[in-house]
Amino acid sequence: TVMLYGRMTYVSPFARASYNLGNGGMLRVAFSSGFTPTDLIMRQPEGQIDLKQDLAALAQAPRISRRDDHAAVERTRTYEASYQVVDGSRTFTATAFSDSVADAVFLMSGDIGLAGSANLLPDLNTRGTVFNAGNFQRTGFSAALSESVTDRLEISVAGGEAGALVADPDTGRGPLRSSIRQSPRPWMTARIQAAMPFTGTRLGASYGWTDFRALMPTHQSLTGRTNQQVGWNFVGRQPLPGMLGMRMEIMAELRNLLAQGYLGI
Q1: What would the pLDDT profile of 139-162 be if each residue is shown by its tens digit?
Q2: Quick one: which of 19, 18, 58 has its CA closest to 38?
């Protein structure tokens, strides 16, 4: 329930089903509607505890924007299916998905006069301004290969095609929201993750390529571990000694360090 320019109440259901084909692999189908289902995306294997999963659930909040001087909450309806095969240390995954986004939220910077004040909301976490880009639908597919080189080093490569947002050449002569449209674009992501012995430090780096003249919304996979990303990203985690029975970690996350993938208006 959100109180902003009135009261809005939403429910965000999600579900996932898996069918084990034995040596033939694993089939998974998933559905979500509303906010990002962190319980599906961040879930760890049985018996493992991950503070990142708990923090993601605590930080989960509705993405609020302003549309025609009324508050709106972003909702994403996703259908996804995947097929996974494990061969020793290698895992191959093929995925197809469909996203339907209502009241999509993006950050704007620079000259925001094109959007109109009735469609803007200040963002308290950045120097940007929240813009309601309206509704869009897109589909996508991907293939991913992960290799566990050792029990402390994993490498993965993924690629596919998904809908991206592009601006018409005549942007600025009419309403900004109506000038943004969906167009398919290819993408590739490479990722490496490592765990240091003795210290328990975990490091990860990834680079995601696509057509950087378009805005590629991130699709968080509901059935696999490989997600589409943009630009150069880095994450580090360092466990700390327990204090008063509490388990603590230091986490650092840097996203899109090369500042790629912005839609110029």
Answers
A1: 999 999 999 998 889 999 999 999
A2: 58
Are the beta carbons of 182 and 216 closer than 8 angstroms? no
Measure the CA–CA gap between 133 and 182, rounded to whole angstroms: 12
Of the CA atoms within 13 Å of residue 131, those in its CB half-sphere come to 21
Chain segment 96-119, per-residue pLDDT in tens: 999 999 989 888 887 777 777 777
Report residue 157 as tokens.
């490569």
The radius of gyration computed from the CA coordinates of the chain, to the nearest angstrom, equals 20
Distance between alpha carbon 246 and the CA centroid of its chain, in Å?
A: 30
How much is the pTM?
Answer: 0.80
Question: Please, what's the b/e burial string for 7-29 (b: 16 or more CB within 10 A of its CB; e: otherwise)?
Answer: eeeeeeebebeeeeeeeebbebe
Residues 6 or more apart in contact with residue 36 via CB below 8 angstroms: 60, 76, 220
At 20-68, the pLDDT tens digits run: 998 889 999 999 998 777 767 655 444 444 555 556 555 566 788 888 7
d(CA 129, CA 66) in angstroms, rounded, equals 11
What is the phi/psi pair of residue 78, to 5°?
Answer: -125, 135
Checking if the pLDDT of 245 tops 90, the result is no
